[in-house]
Specification:
16 helices, globular, binds azafagomine, binds calcium ion
Length: 451
């Protein structure tokens, strides 16, 4: 009888170990072979939007190096690979004409993954909206639910059967809070009135895409959200109320809409007259049965009441905390807490950790090609331990995708932040697995026993 340590060390049989990326962050060549521009090609070429004036024009040149990158995944022994497709490669104008070359790129990638024993998880939307649709209102236009379902349908018909796990949206909260409220992300709007409309149309589009999948798809589809648990800075009533608002706005809003068919009541307090009353048939569209949910976890927020727009809440930096290069506190307990919270609130839906990782200042490639990133190894070890704890608490966690396979374009932060377990030299495009890649590779090979 193995002792309790080793017995608990392993993850459930069949646990899906992989890595995640997103089209605009790694591919480059955004306009190649008939692709249309996205809001990120536009945003990145708008002076001042991206650190150092970086753009996604080259990125990790994955559009040309995809075969070697799959070989790299194979070397690391990954069982799965989460990636996103670029809507405007497939439909250059966002609707109507299909660009076969764009479809072929993803079809070849999927075949290469399967030939290397790697399961594809395909995200339809990871923030790169076709510019042509943004010109027609984008996420502010109710028609986008149909546009998105049409895009999904083209991919379902082309790839279903080879792709058996589909995701509609990546992190709708970031899309709306970043793109429509604070403006740090494309399309760079700053409007309290637009934000709830974008949220609602994203969720309607999610529902329409799931409905379209049910008409032809034979496998699984889900939604990926980012969850950042909120903890009160003090035991004051004001801080408790601030936590409630922040938690509803960031953590409950999207899963409540998708799984419960309603928004949390706090949203009306937060947005006031900017919060529309939506018709019931919208929620009937939004609420579709999902086969799984994906949770992206990075950090927590210790939260206090404060004058802020529109949450009236602020994050309190922890003097004894450890922080990553993106200013996020390393807090693995937050992952345990949020997974138990999700299980209790939504029922034990099959759940994948579809992103988890950290940006640290990595040393340049040392001699012998070794890159020591002990802080990232420590981060991964602690968060995988948290997942094991959540599984022991009864959470149905089915897999883990480390963010990210490669150093890549961290949106408005450009290439200044490195999240990869594999280092990318952007001058030569040389890939060098970091120590964390070798560490993770052993975890995958032992199904967590080496943790
Ligand atoms: O900030 C790190 C990651 N977070 N989730 C979405 C990804 O596109 C980001 O790179
Ligand atoms: Ca994020």
């Amino acid at each position: 009888m193995p002792n309790s340590a080793t017995a608990s060390a392993r993850f459930p049989d069949g646990f899906l170990w992989g890595a995640a990326t997103a089209a605009h962050q790694i591919e480059g060549s955004p306009l190649a072979d008939g692709a249309g521009p996205s809001i990120w090609t536009r945003f990145a070429h708008t002076p001042g939007m991206i650190v150092n004036g970086d753009t996604g024009d080259i990125a990790c040149d994955h559009y040309h190096r995809w075969k070697q990158d799959v070989a790299l995944m194979r070397e690391l022994g990954l069982k799965a690979y989460r990636f996103s497709t670029s809507w405007s490669r497939i439909l250059p104008e966002g609707t109507g004409r299909v660009n076969q070359a764009g479809l072929d790129f993803y079809s070849r990638l999927v075949d290469e993954l399967l030939e290397n024993g790697i399961e594809p998880l395909l995200t339809l939307y990871h923030w790169d909206l076709p510019a042509a649709l943004d010109d027609r209102g984008g996420w502010l236009n109710r028609d986008i639910a149909q546009w998105f379902a049409e895009y999904g349908d083209v991919l379902y018909r082309a790839l279903d059967g080879r792709v058996k796990k589909w995701v509609t949206l990546n992190e709708p909260w970031v899309v709306t809070d970043g793109g429509y409220l604070h403006g740090a992300l494309a399309p760079g709007h700053r409007s309290k009135y637009e934000t709830p409309i974008a949220t609602h149309n994203l969720m309607r589009a999610h529902g329409a895409a799931v409905q379209a999948y049910r008409a032809t798809g034979k496998h699984e589809i889900g939604l990926v959200v980012n969850i950042e648990p909120k903890y009160p800075a003090s035991d004051s009533a004001d801080d408790a109320a601030a936590v409630k608002r922040a938690h509803a706005y960031m953590n409950e809003q999207y899963l409540d809409a998708a799984l419960l068919g309603r928004y949390p009541p706090e949203l009306k307090d937060i947005f006031g007259d900017a919060w529309p009353q939506w018709p019931q048939e919208d929620f009937d569209l939004i609420r579709q049965k999902l086969d799984f949910i994906g949770i992206n976890y990075y950090t927590r927020s210790v939260t206090k009441a404060a004058q802020s727009y529109p949450l009236d809440a602020a994050v309190v930096k922890q003097p004894l905390g450890t922080y990553t290069e993106t200013g996020w506190e390393v807090f693995p307990q937050g992952l345990v807490d949020l997974l138990v919270w999700a299980k209790d609130r939504y029922g034990n839906i099959p759940t994948y950790i579809t992103e988890n990782g950290a940006a640290f200042f990595d040393p340049p490639v040392a001699e012998g090609g070794r890159i020591r990133d002990p802080l990232r190894i420590d981060y991964l070890q602690k968060h995988l331990g948290a997942i094991r704890q959540a599984i022991a608490a009864g959470c149905d966690i089915r897999g883990y995708m480390v963010w990210s396979l490669l150093d890549n374009m961290e949106w408005s932060l450009g290439y200044s932040k490195r999240f990869g377990i594999v280092h990318v030299n952007y001058g030569t495009q040389e890939r060098t697995p970091k120590d964390s890649a070798h560490y993770y590779s052993k975890i995958v090979a032992s199904n967590g026993a080496s943790l």
